[in-house]
Amino acid sequence: MGNDPSYTNQKFKVIGSRVQRPDGVDKVTGRARYGADYNAPGQLVGLFLRSPHAHARILKISTSRAEKLSGVKAIITSADLPDLTNGDNAARDILENCMARGRALYDGHAVAAVAAVDEQTAKKALKLIKVTYEVLPHVTDVDEAMKPEAPVIHEDMYTAGIEPRPTKPSNLYNVAEFGHGDVEAGFAEADLIVEKSYKTEQTHQGYIEPHACVASVNPDGTGELWVTTQGHFTYRSVCASLLGMDIAKLKVTSSEIGGGFGGKTHVWIEPITLALSRKANRPVKAVMSREEVFRASGPTSSTSIDIKIGAKKDGTVTAAFAALRYQGGAFRGAIPGMPWAMIGAMTSFACYNLANVKSVGYDVVVNRPKVAAYRAPSAPMIAFAVESTMDMVAKELGMDPVDFRIRNAAREGTRACYGPVYGPIGIGATLEAVKNHPHMRARLKKNQGRGMACGFWFNFGGQTCTDLNIATDGSVTLTVGTIDVGGSRASLSLIAAEELGIPYEQVKAHIADTGSLGHNDTTEGSRGTFSSGMAAIFAARQAIGVLRERAAIMWNIPVEDVAWEAGSAKAIGSKHRKLKPLSLAEIAAASPTTGGPIAGHNESVPDNAGVSFASHICDVEVDPETGGTRVIRYTVVQDAGKAIHPTYVEGQMQGGAAQGIGWALNEEYIYGEDGRLQNPGFLDYRIPVCSDLPFIDTQILEIPNPNHPYGVRGVGETSIVPPLAAIGNAISNAVGVRMNHVPMSPPRILKALEQLDAT
Amino acid sequence: MSAVLVSTTINDDAVQFACPPEESLLSVLRNRLGLIGAKEGCSTGDCGACSVTLDGRLVCSCLVLGVEAQGREIATIEGMAVDGKLHPLQENFIDHAALQCGICTPGFLMAARVLLERNPDPTESEIRYALAGNLCRCTGYDKIVHAVQASAKEMRKLDKKKSPRKKA
User: Fold this and answer.
1) Which of A425, A517, A652, B21 is the S-S candidate for A512 at Cβ 3.0 to 4.6 Å?
2) What stretches in chain B show pLDDT beneath 50?
3) Do B94 and A33 count as a contact with CB atoms less than 8 A apart?
4) Contact A20/B86, CB-based, under 8 Å?
5) DSSP A40-82
6) Mapping DSSP to helix (H, G, I), strand (E, B) and coil, where does residue B159 land?
7) In chain A, which residues have pLDDT < 70?
8) The sheet that has A110-116: what strands, in order across it?
9) What DSSP designation does A23 have?
């Protein structure tokens, strides 16, 4: 009990039940309020002027004509934003990404912003702002950007992570190596070596709700921000520090969030909207258009990857090597100290038990928007490369691909390719489940093929702060600071109900604004239900301590004689035989006279979120005439540790798989020779629609996380990792072409089929 | 340009509003009438989050002008639950967890209602194609299709109860 996070294997009453989410009615009736649904009295409309060039020096911004337009209340350029970042590179990158400082670094980079009385006036004002550019050579491809002749984007960028330090600046900003053993010796031992290079194109998180906020800054330096975000506490600290405000004087209220998938872990328009409000001395509302969302927020890295895997005839992998080149857009990675290729390199061979392994991540800048986290960021691309190559090795060995993976799967005690030694993990169990799944035995027709692939994600704990308050009627308010992206208020209420021994319906979960709780890290790394769940357990246990004390007062007996069982205080011992149990509601009703409100509280940094593994099975049908590929059956097997709300866990598994399917087959940022994004809309950037997909079957495995009282692991991200390779492997088995470029779109498949015919 | 006065019917209520001729119906609903259930995901008719019906026909309200509402009947998500009772589709979307973030949900419910009005017993494929104009990024559509199937079944039962067919 108390704050011990160890797994206890307890029997559950409500955990695991499929209750209705508390925000369901609001969301099916149109009442739920998202980012663009907030308004403030007297608000202005904020709009952004964005660079049409991929790379340009900004010689002059003339705002005088726009300023004279009636109804224009404020215009912001970088001249209005002094650099307060004090040598913090990550903060400086955020500042420069929010508003160009002397140089436009990508098509869509904000160069000015306007606040006006209405949208028409703001649009007119944007047209009246004259920006004089000197267009510079640009580079948008990750491999091109690494060539010696490539235009250097940042004159002060010298590659970190290599010795000696380079003497010339370049677009390669970091090199990171992971692994153990001796890969050269390992390859020498191998009977068979397969080498292959891969490319994956840039994709966007594709949340349906564009970024939106209302900012209100007062002359006394206090301010409020209503915003769609995955982390309102993070937005608060970032915005406050960029604008020179005291963190506590900025109150951020998170709206319902219309999808994030990592894209709403970073600030975009918010600091500038606050700056507009400060300058205009009026509230300002800013909402991105879909085109702006594509051009200037989100995307994940495009990549170029080399893989080399060696194995013995018996199927033992003797060595594995990966070189990963990821572009982060025009800036260093968004997570300080953890650039995107580094994260990819860490995940590269995490599914396997390898004696000799080496992964090198090369992080590169190009003239594209600043890369943001996207669901298990950096993992799907390297998984595509590794899992495709694993299938090729299995094929050359004449082994079943599932058996080959089982033979090499990581297990408890395996040293992961990124360093740590695993505790109990689920990769082996997911593979066994795949092997025994009826899907694997279903018949396939002509031009159809089946593939499978594995995936890994770390998961994250992070800073968490939670309150639990008991009202005098016995109903319970659970106040958390982690945004609810997909139903966590239901899961967290289940947890509070389980601990207190009361029905789920008696608990109501809320997301607090930043004025109402201590700092909570962003909802990222699949941490929402893991971390806030852990904090809810401890807060509830603290409240139970108070409930026992109050019962002791009511009975006038020592608190040591009071136990908490099934939602009631019970007096222990024969001398208290006559005392009937006191329910939570009875104790709560008496609270005004026994010491006041009853509450529990917890602040913590839960570690060891429990690594997560999944194995997916996919059947495709390829049309050899068009190159079009259709997913006809899909099965996700994933270890959830413990599924608090199994339906919502299934939802995460299905949603991640669908995003992976879109990535594998359709989705792609297309840049022209001019460095401009050619498809910034849902018509030309095609995410899967309902008629593209089959039902997505799920199988939840529960291998308890030893570092959570209920065994919970994060479940939100891993499901996007295997689909790219599962589909690539299925296509290979369907029509005999090995695709090494994602998306595996009809033209690429047709080309591969033509080349196959030619040989 | 000066505003035009428009008289229309929204969710069976007579409504008047004034808007410039170039303003979209979506903007009118959201910014002038406080009906925020229709969402703007793209404003190009690609995502379906702003779906409403105009004289019973499913439309993207971002592609309809506010002035086109003159004399027509508009139905939005706000009118789907009647007298505090949720529509079977709304019930089933909650029961089947057919929503995660929920931003696309009003649009899906409007599209699914129109489908079931026209085709009370759709196949899985008919459901998938009827909903192909609505984007959802969270669910992979699995639980949405299940919720629509369950609603269709329930509504057919209700219909039978209301108007029992006589055997010939």
Assistant:
1) A517
2) 167-168
3) no
4) no
5) -TTPEEEEEEE-SSSSEEEEEEE-HHHHHSTTEEEEE-GGGS-
6) helix
7) 1-2
8) A72-76, A110-116, A44-50, A284-287, A212-217, A223-227, A250-254
9) T
Chain B residues within an 8 Å CB radius of A691? 125, 128-129, 131-132
CA-derived radius of gyration, chain B: 17
Flag if B137 and A23 touch (Cβ within 8 Å): no
Residue A112, C-beta contacts closer than 8 angstroms, at least 6 positions apart: A48, A49, A61, A63, A75, A76, A77, A99, A126, A129, A131
Contact A294, A98 (CB under 8 A): no
Q: What is the ipTM for the molecules in this complex?
A: 0.97
Q: Are B101 and A256 inside 8 Å of each other by CB?
A: yes
- For residue B44, which residues of chain A lie inside 8 Å, CB to CB? 290, 681-683
Q: What local confidence, expressed as pLDDT, does residue B1 receive?
A: 62
Residue A553 tokens read as 């007062």
* Residue A477 pLDDT: 98
B15 part of contact set with chain A, CB < 8 Å: no
Residues 6+ apart with CB under 8 A from A441: none
Q: A28–B109: do the CB atoms touch at under 8 Å?
A: yes
- Closest Cβ opposite residue A683 in set B41, B44, B78: B44
Average pLDDT, chain A: 97
- Which residues 137-166 in chain B show a CB within 8 A of chain A? 137-146
Show the 3-state SS of A587-626. Answer: HHHHHHHHCCCEEEEEEECCCCCCCEEEEEEEEEEECCCC
Distance from CA of A312 to the nearest CA of B (A): 40
Roughly what angle, to the nearest 10 degrees, separates helices A270-280 and A89-98? 70
Amino acid A1: pLDDT = 52
| CA–CA min distance B152, chain A (Å) | 17
Q: Does the distance separating the beta carbons of B104 and A30 come in below 8 Å? A: no
**Predicted TM-score (pTM) of this structure:** 0.97
Q: What is the pLDDT of residue B168?
A: 44
Q: Which residues of chain B have a CB within 8 Å of the CB of A651?
A: 97, 100, 138-139, 143
Query: CB contact, 8 Å: B79 with chain A?
Result: no
Say how far apart CA A101 and CA A99 lie, in whole Å.
6
State both tokens at A321.
């090597």
- Would you give the distance in Å from CA A134 to the centre of its chain? 37
* Distance between A471 CA and the closest CA of chain B, angstroms: 27
Give the pLDDT confidence score for residue B165 in this predicted structure: 61
Q: Is there a contact between A655 and B39 if contact means CB atoms under 8 Å apart?
A: no
User: Cα–Cα–Cα angle for A511, A515, A516, nearest 5°?
Assistant: 50
